[in-house]
């Protein structure tokens, strides 16, 4: 058992933690064993466990240089060099290639006093030195080369700023507010039954005129054209690319083509479109079918009129494809391949069920498939291009309307196990582990999100490039980025696939490096960062958020204690995003009516009757606090909304978000954590068009009161 404990420690698996109630929890040896086995460790006998321990204890010694070193700007540029004692070189030449192409070089002489560590390994004695390189580098991604005789070593140097970008860095000192929108749920007079980027472009001036400095959005990640019912934005196909259903096809010149107009004017199309617009929930299957059909006709026109004539519009598309590189091409190939496989056999919805020759993107079979389906692949590239053009236009519309931030995007904590991301680079993930959360107030049985975690060792071996790519993709065309479950940069609750969420443990990540890279990309993109720190939050996360100036996430409904009103400056600090409720919680009306508690009863989401009764009692206590604080008349939901929003708006929090659902007294949730097919998550639309909603006297009055409470 001691061997297993040592292996878990080296593998980054924690055997204890502090739960959401502040109490210590110990993970059983059996559960730890399950997590280690899912990570690929053989625990069948002590010999194999000992071999794993030896490998983990010594493997870092067999690299002369680690793949990457992350150093804060203005700190000494120090790197660790390791050499076998028998063949150690003392004279080294160094060369630094900065990301802007500058070349710096010099020489170093190592002495006995420079040895910082020594290890006796099976292949002899190894020595570790700290090299001090006498240069000061600007923040960015640089390349270090060390040469001694025949030895030539390389390492990525990432130089980072000390903190993330803040609004005051661009002379915005006011407190800001804006709606948090589930884009697909946006009901407008123009869209096709699903909110789109065109809606954002058209609504930006109205929101800005109401005093809003941002529009918060759900993750915009690419989903699954072949499986439109898999609609969770937090279980995406790729976090690097966009959900092309959000493209407003009517904005593009190809939409005016004769073939397109003939299709959209047909009786059948109009009838289906009207049904989508009138539906209370997003009809993903029909919306997807309509948009794919019209996109195909538009692309055919684009091929004939633009690509064949090599017009400037065609060249812009080709530049986009070229810049997108392998990750974009692999995504669209996977989309087409998945669609073809699923059409043949509904059990082949994921790449793990594909025939073996299609389970690797670089296989000859996949290459041949891509050649045979080039038109379908090009159409998917075209759809991505339209979405990116319109996302950029939406951000520009926000800024031109006077918003300080514009679009506020959301980065999901992971990707689906059967996604294009995992198909393209399966080695990046522990595919037999599933990310989630231990039991807490919101989910007493714990949560299993069905997402594979990164393998932190592989992440570091790739010099953190997958993480960098994620940040760069999601900070594009955004003034702020919310990091879903920011604790993932420090640790992730992981359970073996097929086990319950209670049979998991935390796996550690290199948090200092990841936060430093987050600060670098935040500064480069002038993007404020919000860390969603809800649930089981270790003290170390709070320290890291403070150190790197990542905004905390404070939710009014989770702060129903007398002390939160008496000490609101501490509850809602300046460096935070404050919101009344969230997409994972009931609306304010649903909360007051206890719809969420009744729904959890119906869906059997309570671990015991005692826990259910405790939560009912807690809700009554919270409602009593609200009644007392705001002198609420019973059943006056408009007063509940008004008082809660004005209170949150008046807090010191730099950002304040509100849900449009609350403004119009919606009582049903958009998502119920801990469910998948049991509840229609991510489908409910707003009950009336946003254009009408924003013209309502009661909504305008509340928005004016929020603006005034913000001091603007």
Automatic annotation (TrEMBL):
Enzyme class label: transferase
Protein's name in the database: 4-alpha-glucanotransferase
EC code(s) of this entry: 2.4.1.25
Annotated GO MF terms: 4-alpha-glucanotransferase activity
The UniProt record lists the keyword Transport: no
Family indicated by similarity: Belongs to the disproportionating enzyme family.
Stretches assigned to the MalQ N-terminal beta-sandwich domain: 65-161
Key words, A-Z: Carbohydrate metabolism, Glycosyltransferase, Transferase
Annotated catalysed reactions: Transfers a segment of a (1->4)-alpha-D-glucan to a new position in an acceptor, which may be glucose or a (1->4)-alpha-D-glucan
Gene it is expressed from: malQ
A Pfam family that the UniProt record links to this protein: Glyco_hydro_77
């Amino acid at each position: 058992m001691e061997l297993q404990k040592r292996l878990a420690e080296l593998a980054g698996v924690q055997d204890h933690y502090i739960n959401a109630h502040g109490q210590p929890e110990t993970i059983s040896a059996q559960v730890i064993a399950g997590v280690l086995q899912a990570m690929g460790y053989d625990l069948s006998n002590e010999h194999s466990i000992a071999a794993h321990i030896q490998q983990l204890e010594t493997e870092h010694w067999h690299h002369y240089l680690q793949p990457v070193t992350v150093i804060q700007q203005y700190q000494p540029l120090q790197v660790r060099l390791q050499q076998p004692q028998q063949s150690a070189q003392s004279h080294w030449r160094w060369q630094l290639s900065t990301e802007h192409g500058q070349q710096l070089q010099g020489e170093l002489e190592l002495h006995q006093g420079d040895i910082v560590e020594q290890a006796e390994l099976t292949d002899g004695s190894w020595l570790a030195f700290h090299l001090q390189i006498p240069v000061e580098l600007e923040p960015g991604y640089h390349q270090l080369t060390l040469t001694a005789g025949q030895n030539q070593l390389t390492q990525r140097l990432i130089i980072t700023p000390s903190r993330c970008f803040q609004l005051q860095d661009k002379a915005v000192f006011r407190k800001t507010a804006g709606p948090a929108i589930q884009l697909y749920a946006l009901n407008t007079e123009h869209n096709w039954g699903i909110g789109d980027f065109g809606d954002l472009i058209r609504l930006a001036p109205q929101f800005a005129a109401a005093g809003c400095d941002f529009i918060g959005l759900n993750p915009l990640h690419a989903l699954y054209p072949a499986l439109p019912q898999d609609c969770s934005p937090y279980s995406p196909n790729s976090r690097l690319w966009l959900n092309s259903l959000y493209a407003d096809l009517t904005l593009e010149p190809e939409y005016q083509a004769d073939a397109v107009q003939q299709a959209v004017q047909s009786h059948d199309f109009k009838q289906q479109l009207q049904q989508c617009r009138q539906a209370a929930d997003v009809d993903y299957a029909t919306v997807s079918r309509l948009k794919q059909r019209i996109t195909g006709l538009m692309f055919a026109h684009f091929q004939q009129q633009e690509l064949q004539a090599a017009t400037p519009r065609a060249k812009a598309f080709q530049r986009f494809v070229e810049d997108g590189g392998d990750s974009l091409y692999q995504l669209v190939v996977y989309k087409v391949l998945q669609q073809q496989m699923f059409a043949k056999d509904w059990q082949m919805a994921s790449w793990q069920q594909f025939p073996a020759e299609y389970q690797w993107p670089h296989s000859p079979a996949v290459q041949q498939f891509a050649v045979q389906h080039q038109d379908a692949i090009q159409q998917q590239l075209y759809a991505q291009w339209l979405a990116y053009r319109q996302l950029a236009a939406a951000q520009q519309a926000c800024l031109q309307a006077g918003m300080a931030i514009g679009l506020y995007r959301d980065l999901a904590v992971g990707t689906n196990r059967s996604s294009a991301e995992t198909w393209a680079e399966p080695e990046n993930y522990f595919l037999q582990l599933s990310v989630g959360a231990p039991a807490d107030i919101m989910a007493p049985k714990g949560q299993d999100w069905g997402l594979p975690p990164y393998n932190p060792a592989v992440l570091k071996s790739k010099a953190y490039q997958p993480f960098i790519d994620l940040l760069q993709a999601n900070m594009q065309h955004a003034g702020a980025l919310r990091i879903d479950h920011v604790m993932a940069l420090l640790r992730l609750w992981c359970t073996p696939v097929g086990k319950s969420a209670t049979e998991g443990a935390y796996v550690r990540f290199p948090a200092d490096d990841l936060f430093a890279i987050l600060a670098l990309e935040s500064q480069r993109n002038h993007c404020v960062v919000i860390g969603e720190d809800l649930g089981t939050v270790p003290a170390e996360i709070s320290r890291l958020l403070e150190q790197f100036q990542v905004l905390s996430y404070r939710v009014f409904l989770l702060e129903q204690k007398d002390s939160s009103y008496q000490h609101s400056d501490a509850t809602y600090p300046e460096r935070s995003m404050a919101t009344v409720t969230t997409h994972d919680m009931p609306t304010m009306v649903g909360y007051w009516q206890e719809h969420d508690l009744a729904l959890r009863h119906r869906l059997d989401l309570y671990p015991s009757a005692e826990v259910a009764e405790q939560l009912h009692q807690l809700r009554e206590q919270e409602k009593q606090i609200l009644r007392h604080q705001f002198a609420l008349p019973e059943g006056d939901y408009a007063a509940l909304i008004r008082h809660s929003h004005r209170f949150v708006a008046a807090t010191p929090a730099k950002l304040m978000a509100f849900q449009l659902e609350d403004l119009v007294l919606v009582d049903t949730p958009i998502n119920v954590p801990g469910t998948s097919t049991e509840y229609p998550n991510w489908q409910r639309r707003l009950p009336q068009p946003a254009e009408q909603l924003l013209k309502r006297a009661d909504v305008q009055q509340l928005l004016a009161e929020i603006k005034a409470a913000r001091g603007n």
